[in-house]
Automatic annotation (TrEMBL):
It comes from the Bacteria. CDD domains: DUS_like_FMN (cd02801). It is an enzyme of class 1 (oxidoreductase). This is tRNA-dihydrouridine(20/20a) synthase. Its EC number is 1.3.1.91. Keywords: Flavoprotein, FMN, NADP, Oxidoreductase, RNA-binding, tRNA processing, tRNA-binding. Its cofactor is FMN. The gene is dusA. It catalyses: 5,6-dihydrouridine(20a) in tRNA + NAD(+) = uridine(20a) in tRNA + NADH + H(+); 5,6-dihydrouridine(20a) in tRNA + NADP(+) = uridine(20a) in tRNA + NADPH + H(+); 5,6-dihydrouridine(20) in tRNA + NADP(+) = uridine(20) in tRNA + NADPH + H(+); 5,6-dihydrouridine(20) in tRNA + NAD(+) = uridine(20) in tRNA + NADH + H(+). The active site is at 98 (proton donor).
Length: 323
């Protein structure tokens, strides 16, 4: 069954400072099939930076994986999309949802929802350069452009430009007065707007995002849209993805216990530390592995007490497993 189920069925959202290559490798141990997204990488970082490997490298185990780009220049985005395709990414995603001041100062992210024609140009430019899918992650609106009619118009434009798939965060973004964290919780969720988009654009692949935390919620959404993207819940409770492969991809492969996940991480940490980085760069991502389980607090304390020591390495996990 897995070969016939598209990877976007379940995905892990792009999250700045969180979905780096270490977290993605960790998540890939838990789920072999869910689609993973990079943190947003700006066109400036790629085109003006001296070390693209820092932003674009990933492990082959991370497939299927999408590169999320941030920018507002169709030409620059198209150039970066081609670079991303050449690196081996399976999808190019355009960020039209981030509400942070830093992103707005660059005139991209959620504020682009006010400029559907420009976003359509961005999509068309990228489509002209790459063969992999070009997708857009956006909000249902922004303050001042928050009606369903505004959303319908926005999606109409990018669909005409050839977008392959949209991921819709079911909240508007408040561009002034709310922090990015508040923008993830304060504006009310409007799932019905996303469901209506699927009815109005039945041939367009649509993934829903925002506030989804349980398998019951995932299953309900999948009766109305094509895919579900999980953000904070994937980071806070990564073992939620333990059941993703059998439930949504029909996989019969054996899933890993928490202890088996830790054992698989040991050689990865050893390999990474031979080249660069510190143990806490990896271990900070796994603190939620025992979320909701007896011993979760002890696990977090065991790691946090040890992972910032200068000499910290994979032996932290080896010692934990010997307890």
């Amino acid at each position: 069954m897995t070969s016939s189920v598209p990877s976007y069925r379940i995905s892990v959202a792009p999250m700045m400072d969180w979905t780096d290559r270490h977290f993605r490798f960790f998540m890939r141990i838990i789920s072999k099939h869910a689609l993973l997204y990079t943190e947003m990488v700006t066109t400036g970082a790629i085109l003006r930076g001296k070390d693209n490997h820092r932003y674009l490298d990933f492990s082959k185990e991370e497939h299927p994986i999408a590169l999320q780009l941030g920018g507002d220049s169709p030409l620059a985005l198209a150039e970066c999309a081609k670079i991303g395709e050449d690196y081996g990414y399976d999808e190019i995603n355009l960020n039209v949802g981030c509400p942070s001041d830093r992103v707005q100062s660059g005139s991209f992210g959620a504020c682009l929802m006010k400029e559907p024609n420009l976003v359509a140009e961005m999509v068309a430019a990228c489509k002209s350069k790459v063969k992999v899918p070009v997708t857009v992650k956006h909000r249902i609106g922004v303050n001042g452009k928050e009606s369903y009619e505004d959303l319908f118009h926005f999606v109409s434009k990018i669909k005409e430009a050839g977008v392959d798939h949209i991921i819709v965060h079911a909240r508007i973004a408040i561009l002034e007065g709310l922090s990015p964290k508040e923008n993830r919780t304060v504006p009310p969720l409007r799932y019905q707007d996303v469901y209506q988009l699927k009815k109005d654009f039945p041939g367009l692949t649509i993934t829903i995002n925002g506030g989804i935390k349980t398998h019951a919620e995932i299953s309900d959404h999948l009766t109305k849209v094509d895919g579900v993207m999980i953000g904070r819940a994937a980071y806070d409770n990564p073992f939620l993805f333990h059941d993703v492969d059998p439930l949504y991809y029909g996989s019969e492969e054996k899933t890993h216990s928490r202890e088996e996940i830790l054992r698989e991480l040991i050689p990865y940490i050893r390999s990474v530390l031979k080249k660069e980085g510190k143990a806490h760069h990896i271990l900070r991502h796994i603190l939620g592995l025992y979320y909701g389980e007896k011993g979760a607090r002890e696990f977090r304390k065991f790691l946090t007490d040890r992972m910032h020591i200068t000499s910290a390495n994979e032996s932290i996990l080896e010692d934990y497993l010997k307890r």
